[in-house]
Amino acid sequence: xxxxxxxxxxxxxxxxxxxxxxxxxxxxxxxxxxxxxxxxxxxxxxxxxxxxxxxxxxxxxxxxxxxxxxxxxxxxxxxxxxxxxxxxxxxxxxxxxxxxxxxxxxxxxxxxxxxxxxxxxxxxxxxxxxxxxxxxxxxxxxxxxxxxxxxxxxxxxxxxxxxxxxxxxxxxxxxxxxxxxxxxxxxxxxxxxxxxxxxxxxxxxxxxxxxxxxxxxxxxxxxxxxxxxxxxxxxxxxxxxxxxxxxxxxxxxxxxxxxxxxxxxxxxxxxxxxxxxxxxxxxxxxxxxxxxxxxxxxxxxxxxxxxxxxxxxxxxxxxxxxxxxxxxxxxxxxxxxxxxxxxxxxxxxxxxxxxxxxxxxxxxxxxxxxxxxxxxxxxxxxxxxxxxxxxxxxxxxxxxxxxxxxxxxxxxxxxxxxxxxxxxxxxxxxxxxxxxxxxxxxxxxxxxxxxxxxxxxxxxxxxxxxxxxxxxxxxxxxxxxxxxxxxxxxxxxxxxxxxxxxxxxxxxxxxxxxxxxxxxxxxxxxxxxxxxxxxxxxxxxxxxxxxxxxxxxxxxxxxxxxxxxxxxxxxxxxxxxxxxxxxxxxxxxxxxxxxxxxxxxxxxxxxxxxxxxxxxxxxxxxxxxxxxxxxxxxxx
Length: 636
Known about the structure:
alpha+beta, 30 strands
């Protein structure tokens, strides 16, 4: 028994599915013959057939343009629901309509060739005894091709049972699938080929994930009830030996510490073999960024089914040097370079140093992430930075240190808890002040999207709450809370057009606005906030029309992301928001709205974003007539 990059499951599953597909196709071919008089029929017809001389003339024609339609035949008014689109997709005459043949005879051959394709669509959808009549009328210009389809009789699934032979009691105790309800097949649903293939796949996966990786479906028996118009099935299974995890061994390691890999190991010696668990572990090792390839092999150790778990890995380069740049109208240009080591001490410690140089902010920072600290899936994160910022709202020189633990709470939820310290010198409209703040951030994240950098479907939610205590013109204590929600709805099956929306809200509790350091207040405006307005400008202003910040925040935005090619995307958007002076969001203060048009160029590392936006509530001598942004990644 061998499991290589999911070999045991994936290769055998592929072979089984191909075999099942061949079996299903054979069943679909034999079934109409069993049905007898209901068998599918192909009828060929032509209208306005030209004489032989005319055919000879037609052969000199460069092309024969035509129109094609798929219609219900006979007394049927319409095709059954859900059939028209797959019939059109299967038709070569439809797909090649923009590439017409050179002769009428060629057009007839093309239409005649559609008949077996459309019959296969009917049988795959559970319809038997149907017929397809291709009709070509060459008297018209363009020629008219009509594919007249009689769907036939819809058969439905009766019963589906799984036969484990003499080991039926063992299978029941192990919780293995017993029938249709366990395999996603519903009695009474159309006898389509897809659900049966899926049921076989689901059965094989359940066996592999329950300690029977060598199990096989040895026989598929189908029974037709002509009177009830049903198809029933019985799947016979050879379970093979029940397999458990044996000892785990690692091979190919050079600088990665084996003890670290064992600490991250989710497999327990003696547990039943679970192929999905093995595959998840293999993928998690690849996602660590330590290896170029990982294979896992199961090698039998004895006749009782215990199998050694052999992990073979090829290490990747662990050091990376990178750089990036961004630009916005109000913040100007910014460049950054970083150096990263993803295995600093041999246990996947990710150490990164970053230097940022910009027109409004420059900084030196370093971070360290240590996964699986003390227990599996728990990550220790520490960061430090020294920065100098020159914004319209305030100038700041700051030293920031933070440390904390992060761990998954479920498949889509993550939580983190930490401590942060900041020492800064802040200059705003009221003068220069020193600030010393100690915070204890609690963060909850929910992510059910399909991509981190370019989500096309799903939902994200982040909630953060941080109590602060420190000194700012005297002792001060307050709590900062914020929530961010974004959702992504594809408008077509290929996810080429996506409606994206977001909303954010926050509040500062426990101190007056003037008693809270300027760098801890809420601001709105700029890229990632309300595009069309200057950075931090969508909110209260001081006497010099510089941002004063607020104690609460509300933002919202909508985008339509339309991929016109595989690489180029057009994104119209509208956003609104503002920072409010009071702790509660006030309806007395109007939101600021901006709109614009963006373009994305999709690369291997994420979309390159270019946005042009204008303020819809432009203030005289305050807001610029437009804003321009260049960055990497979607706006949200």
